[in-house]
Amino acid sequence: AENRPNLDFLANYEYTNPFYNREEWGESWNVILSLNFPLFSGLSNLGRVKQAKAGLEQVKILRSQVEQRIKLEVRKAIFDMEEARERIEAQKENVELARANLRIAEERYRLGLMSEIELRDAQLSLTQAETDYFQALYDYNVASAFLDRAIGKYQ
């Protein structure tokens, strides 16, 4: 509306007795037609255009930052999943070795070739290996959930 021409029309008609002591009545009328053209409003428009461009640039920067953050979250989640997967495989082997070691320790203890403390150490080693295995599984699942969230699977 600021950049468009504006047309105003005003009409007035009067029938009055301007002199209260005379019997003369008079009439008058006025018609006003006004047409306005905005010749220069460039500075206010220029300011709004600059403001809009600055806002758009801020949105672009924010979008780029969000995209970079998402890419970083995806990379980190994939890295964490791979690392946890490797630990799962290593911990599986550790659990098997600890079980074999415990079987040997139980046999040696049964034969009287090992003390009870050494047997308890073998049992503790198996428990620790199993705990480490389950921690690796947990870490893998957490990394997988972070990846799903980063790619928008869960909102």
UniProtKB/TrEMBL annotation:
What InterPro entries does this protein's entry cite? Answer: OMP_efflux, TolC-like
Q: Which residues form a coiled coil?
A: 74-108
Q: Cellular location of this protein?
A: Cell outer membrane
Q: Which Gene3D superfamilies match?
A: Outer membrane efflux proteins (OEP)
Where do the TM regions start and end? none
Keyword terms? Cell outer membrane, Coiled coil, Membrane, Transmembrane, Transmembrane beta strand, Transport
An example Gene Ontology cellular component term from the record? Answer: cell outer membrane
GO MF term (any one): efflux transmembrane transporter activity
Against SUPFAM superfamilies, the record matches this protein to: Outer membrane efflux proteins (OEP) (SSF56954)
Full protein name: TolC family protein
